[in-house]
C-alpha cells in the first residue's frame, strides 16, 4: 500500500506538471507610481516619466524564447516610437547574470534602457508573473494596455495604444486597429483574443460609451464564453444603464 505522504507527494507533482502559467494581476486601469531603477549600462532610469505623454514598459527574462521574440518585435517598434513622444524601457530581474542579460539585448538589437529589478521588488509589487508582458501607460502612469505575449502583431497592438494615448486616433479607430477582419491570428489562443476585446470594452466603459463597451464584452464572450472579465463588464455597464433610468 502507498503511504499517505507518498500519495500527497504524487498529487503535488501532478499539480505542478499540469498547472498553467501564472497570470498575475491585470494592471489595466492601475497607476504605476514613479520609481527609479538601476540600469544595465549603469546609473538609474525612471520606470515611467511625466516628460513624455506615453510610457511603454516591457517585462521580460533572458533565456526564454517568447521574451527574446518580444525583444525583437519591440526593437522594431522602437524605430516607430522614435518619431513619437514615447518613453520605453525593458525591465528584467536583477537576479540574472549581467552577461546573460546583455547577450539577449544584443541578439534582439534593442536599444532602450534595460532596468534591473533588484530583488524582484517591482515584479512582486505589481504581481507580474508572466513573461513577457508589455505595459502601455499614460503620462501619469495609468495603464492603458497590459498585453501578454502574442507571436504576431505585437508591435501593431502596442503602437495602436500609443497612438490612442497620443490622440492620433480615436476609440473606434483603435478598435479597428486591434481587431481587423481576421481577428484571430494563428498564434493567438481564444483567451488572448478575448482579452483584447475585454480591454477595449473597459476603455469604452471608462469613456462613458457603455453600449459600445457591452458590444466589445459580448465579442469577448463569443470567443471565450468563460471570460469572467467580460461577464463582469457587461454586468457593470448594465447596472449603470439601469441607474440612469
Major β-sheet, in short? Answer: 5 strands, mixed
What's the alpha carbon Rg, rounded to whole Å?
20 Å
Succession of helices and strands: HEEEHEHEHEEHHHHH
State the strand order across the main sheet. 5-4-3-6-7
Low-confidence stretches: 1-22, 183-187
Average of per-residue pLDDT values? 82
Portion of residues in beta strands equals 5-15%
Question: Considering DSSP H and I runs of 4 or more, what fraction of the residues is helical?
Answer: 40-55%
Q: Helix/strand/pairing class, anyone?
A: alpha/beta
Large-scale geometry: globular
N- to C-terminal distance: 67 Å
DSSP summary: helix tally: 9
Tally of DSSP β-strands: 7
Written account of the structure:
This protein has 245 residues and is of the alpha/beta class. It is built from nine helices and seven strands, in the order αβββαβαβαββααααα. Strands 5-4-3-6-7 form a five-stranded mixed β-sheet. Strands 1-2 form a two-stranded antiparallel sheet. The longest helix is centred in the first third of the chain and has 17 residues, at 65-81. The model is unreliable at 1-22 and 183-187 (pLDDT under 50).
Concise summary:
This protein has 245 residues and is of the alpha/beta class. It has helices spanning 4-18, 65-81, 98-108, 121-126, 154-165, 171-178, 190-206, 210-223, 228-244, and strands at 36-38, 44-46, 54-59, 86-93, 114-117, 133-138, 143-148.
